[in-house]
Amino acid sequence: MIRARTVYLVGAGPGDPGLMTLRGLQILRAADVIVYDRLASDSLLTEARSDARLIYVGKEAGKHALSQDETNQLLVEEASAGRSVCRLKGGDPYLFGRGGEEAAYLAERGIPFVVVPGISSAVAVPAYAGIPVTDRRFGSSVAIVTGHRAAGKEHDPVRWELLAQAADTVVVLMGMANLDSITREFLRGGREGATPVAVIRWGTTGRQQTVVSDLASIAAEVERAGLKPPAILVVGEVVKLRQQLSWFERRPLLGLRVLVTRPRRQASKLAELLRDEGAQPVVCSLIRIEPVEADVDRLNSLFEQRWDWVLFTSANAIPCFGEQLRAAGLDWRALAGARLGAIGPGTSAALEALGLRVDFVPSRAVAESLAEELPGISPSTRVLIPRAAEAREAIVEMLRARGTLVEEIPVYRTVRDERSSSHVAGLLRNGEIDVVTFTSSSAVRAMVDAVGSEALKNVSVACIGPITAETARKHGVAVHVEAEEHTIPGLVAALKAYVASRSQKQGAVS
């Protein structure tokens, strides 16, 4: 539970959304307003309420969405208006995050605030690179410092020459712009040039890159590798452990930038599975699910009689159908006596999560298989199908051909999300996407309508099943991956097999 008129300073963690604390996630899901930074994972924003206001106040070199003073005032204004505010900050709000300044500003103006600490990149990023910041064999002390100001320059608060030997391990955040001067100050302070050093960029995310060298050479190696901020510097003998302890960068999809086109509220499972395999999911759907208003009279009329089967061809239909039942003064007990069919394991799991027993799932997660394989069909069989307003007619036609009485209830429609179109077009145009995933035909149509099939020429396209793949091909989109198991895990498995096969072919050629 969170309070109105209160600002919550929440640490979002270092980049991997799975590293956010449980308390932070609870606040994010409940807040009226989310004020977020550049380094707070975009994937976390999918957890916000659908009606929450999202306000970006990120800062990067030479470009600020809002100044710090403007951000402070924004927090006061939103809380004073009676809203609960989640101030989402990368890493930990107090560790070089200016959270202390924001808290002081709020306190001076009588605005209640709560601090929710976060996992700092100073510890998490080295861990994901296989580097423990302390280890009794190599280092029992650690110092964390900001490298934001040029080392050795006037008014620099960091005494680099003293810090050089003050701790076994030194972690420098925000030091990329001044890396050369920082390393020179360490050398001048007596740290040996052969000291192992690592620079880790975009740590804990699918974009993670690590360069390992020694103190004397790291600046040149980083420049050669083309690493840019955000990145951290780790200095100390613990860096030697990376060779043995590296784990994250060995994942099969590491570095693969995958566009997830599922509606934002449904994207989390696919994004999570991709992230587990090392990919960088980019959630940006061009469609959203809109419930269809219930026809109360028709619903009540339909449920005056018993149904033999109620079939669900998409998990999207389940909550929307539940809302329609409630609007008609009914609930799931209206289905009593009917057997339930689900098009695939994902839809089946969504029904079972409500405590409903699923009686039939076809061998293939396509409407044709559901219609062909549905058991116990006779001319007197009554079948009800709550589904999308724009759904294909195949299942209805096939069941009627088998002699059944079929009724459809439109419970939702897919609507193009206009705000995402230009963003997706820019990502594709700038080469920021490697793979585009489609989990429905409506997503394919929305993508082609928004950016055209030509925009997908330079990316790999992965489809959840044959119907979606057929839609893609009809719209001039080449399909590179088609899942054998028509589920989200099946799609990820197919993508892994595709990447492995492509790597083998490239290795054979080289």
Written account of the structure:
By secondary structure, the chain is of the alpha/beta class. It folds into four domains: 6-119, Cobalt-precorrin-4 Transmethylase, domain 1, CATH 3.40.1010; 123-250, Tetrapyrrole methylase, C-terminal domain (Methyltransferase, Cobalt-precorrin-4 Transmethylase, Domain 2); 257-286 and 417-509, Rossmann fold (3-Layer(aba) Sandwich), CATH 3.40.50; 289-416, Rossmann fold, CATH 3.40.50.10090. 33% of the residues lie in helices and 21% in strands. It is built from 18 helices and 22 strands. It has helices at 22-30, 68-80, 99-108, 121-128, 160-163, 179-188, 218-225, 242-245, 268-276, 296-302, 317-327, 345-352, 367-373, 394-401, 418-429, 441-451, 466-474, 488-509; strands spanning 6-11, 33-36, 53-56, 59-60, 63-64, 84-89, 113-116, 142-146, 169-173, 196-201, 209-214, 231-235, 257-260, 280-283, 287-291, 309-312, 339-342, 382-388, 405-416, 435-438, 460-463, 481-482. It has a five-stranded parallel sheet, with helices on both faces. A five-stranded mixed sheet has the order 8-9-12-10-11, with helices on both faces. Helix 13 (367-373) packs parallel to helix 14 (394-401) and helix 16 runs parallel beside helix 17 (466-474). The longest helix has 22 residues, at 488-509. The chain starts with 5 loop residues before the first strand and ends with a helix. The mean pLDDT is 91.
What would a concise description of this structure say?
This protein has 510 residues and is an alpha/beta fold. It has helices at residues 22-30, 68-80, 99-108, 121-128, 160-163, 179-188, 218-225, 242-245, 268-276, 296-302, 317-327, 345-352, 367-373, 394-401, 418-429, 441-451, 466-474, 488-509; strands at 6-11, 33-36, 53-56, 59-60, 63-64, 84-89, 113-116, 142-146, 169-173, 196-201, 209-214, 231-235, 257-260, 280-283, 287-291, 309-312, 339-342, 382-388, 405-416, 435-438, 460-463, 481-482. The chain contains 18 helices and 22 strands.
